[in-house]
Write a structure and sequence with these properties.
The radius of gyration is 13 Å and the shape is globular. The chain is an all-beta fold. It is built from no helices and 11 strands. The mean pLDDT is 97. It has strands at 3-7, 10-12, 18-25, 34-39, 45-51, 57-59, 67-72, 77-82, 91-97, 102-103, 107-111.
Length: 113
């Protein structure tokens, strides 16, 4: 059974950093294209980053230069390093297995002073 469990969210001040983790089970993360998406209050889902099977990455313009997507194949875990956080980054963040659109329960990130 495919399972995705996000963690690492929290409350952080503007300019701060967080690292989100997504523990995957039931499939091989290194052989899958994965993404991080987020949903801000009252808004739709926004894709912020993708990593494909080859390890190539993509970042949306809104997070480029601040966020880094990576994975640890040995741990079957996906990460999102978020630096220089802004209030507009406040959202619930989900990791997504792209081929099935399966996502986890999400982790809340709140950027506020």
């Amino acid at each position: 059974e495919v399972r995705l469990v996000e963690s690492g969210g929290g409350l952080v001040q503007p300019g701060g950093a967080l690292r989100l983790s997504c523990a995957a089970s039931g499939f091989n993360l290194s052989a899958s294209a994965m993404s991080w998406v987020r949903q801000a209050p009252g808004k739709g889902l926004e894709r912020v980053s993708v990593i494909n099977r080859a390890g190539s990455t993509w970042l949306s313009d809104s997070v480029k230069g601040r966020f880094i997507i990576s994975r640890d194949n040995a741990k079957n875990t996906l990460y999102l390093q978020m630096n220089s956080l802004k209030p507009e980054d406040t959202a619930v963040y989900y990791c997504v297995l792209i081929e099935t659109a399966r996502r986890g329960q999400g982790t809340q990130v709140t950027v506020s002073s």
